[in-house]
């Protein structure tokens, strides 16, 4: 859980950096390519191909392609179809997808995870809901594509990791994850990117370096590692903890307007869902003993 909390704080800062210094100023496909390319450079020196079989390497590359590559394509496309508040609102369904996908991949059904995940969605909706305009269904489906990709990547990594030896150094194989994402990001920029939209200031390049080396590089590695050390309910809830964390950072540092009452209420619901999930896990452990 500590890893997920730490990455949540890290990504909360990253959202504001993107909104202030990159959005609308730097080509989004180039930003994605830079983030993934720099993240790959962090882990390629540690890559030891002999530690995984060919099928396992392809599986890890596939997870990277889906969780980062395809997800980003959906995500950036959604901003052409929806307003920013609508995009943010529609991302709150990710916990539901995680709960369902985790049960499906591990061959079980845990209704209680749907309860806690739904509470996390409710908390995020309290924070982010600002009303909807008509004609948003196409955009809604595009955002759900991004949500599904992000959820599938996390749950898929949990499933893949469960079949690997506990002694396997995860940092020595995670480079395959970013290579898979690059296999999507490179052609996406070639086909959809705009070479005229490259960074024009040192600050923009600095933000991209931070996002690539730290937020994407260390961030996704630690997040996926943390995903293997918690249950599906906690993972689902933590996906929506980013919303109040990101708003709080944006309010404190960049003084953006935020409804503190809704922020506090929604955050309390998300924390409450996490506490409820932990209580249920302890109760189930005691009953099993």
Q: What's the quick description here?
A:
Helix content is about 75%, strand content about 0%.
Q: What keywords describe this structure?
A:
single chain; 289 residues; mainly alpha; 11 helices
Radius of gyration: 19 Å
Alpha-beta content class: mainly alpha
- Molecular shape: globular
Mean pLDDT equals: 84
Measured distance between first and last alpha carbons: 23 Å
- Secondary-structure element series: HHHHHHHHHHH
User: What's the tally of helices?
Assistant: 11
Protein name: DMT family transporter
Domain EamA: 3-127
Organism: Halomonas gemina
Keywords: Membrane, Transmembrane, Transmembrane helix
Structure description:
This protein is mainly α. The chain is 76% helix and 0% strand. It is built from eleven helices and no strands. The longest helix has 29 residues, at 260-288. The chain crosses the membrane at residues 29-46, 58-75, 81-100, 112-130, 136-155, 176-197, 203-223, 235-254, 260-281.
Blueprint (SSEs and pairs):
Layout: H1 2-22, H2 28-43, H3 54-78, H4 84-90, H5 94-105, H6 111-128, H7 137-162, H8 175-192, H9 202-227, H10 232-254, H11 260-288
């Amino acid at each position: 859980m500590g890893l997920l909390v730490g990455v949540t704080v890290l990504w909360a800062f990253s959202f504001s950096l993107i909104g202030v210094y990159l959005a609308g100023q730097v080509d989004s496909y180039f930003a994605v390519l830079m983030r993934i390319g720099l993240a790959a450079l962090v882990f390629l020196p540690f890559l030891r191909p002999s530690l995984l079989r060919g099928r396992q390497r392809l599986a890890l590359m596939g997870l990277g392609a889906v969780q980062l590559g395809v997800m980003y394509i959906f995500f950036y496309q959604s901003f052409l179809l929806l307003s920013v508040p609508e995009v943010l609102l529609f991302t709150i369904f990710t916990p539901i997808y995680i709960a369902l996908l985790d049960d499906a991949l591990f061959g079980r059904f845990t209704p209680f995870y749907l309860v806690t995940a739904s509470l996390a969605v409710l908390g995020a909706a309290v924070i982010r809901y600002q009303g909807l305009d008509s004609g948003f269904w196409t955009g809604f489906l595009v955002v759900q594509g991004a949500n599904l990709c992000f959820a599938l990547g996390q749950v898929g990594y949990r499933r893949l990791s469960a079949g690997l030896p506990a002694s396997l150094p995860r940092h020595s194989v995670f480079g395959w994850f970013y290579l898979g994402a690059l296999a999507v990001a490179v052609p996406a920029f070639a086909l959809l990117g705009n070479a005229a939209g490259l960074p024009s200031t040192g600050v923009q390049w600095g933000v991209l370096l931070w996002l690539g080396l730290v937020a994407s590089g260390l961030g996704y590695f630690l997040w996926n590692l943390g995903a293997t050390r918690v249950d599906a309910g906690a993972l689902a809830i933590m996906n929506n903890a980013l919303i109040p964390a990101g708003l709080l950072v944006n309010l404190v540092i960049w003084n953006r307007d935020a409804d503190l009452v809704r922020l506090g209420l929604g955050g309390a619901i998300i924390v409450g869902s996490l506490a409820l999930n932990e209580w249920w896990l302890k109760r189930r452990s005691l009953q099993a003993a």
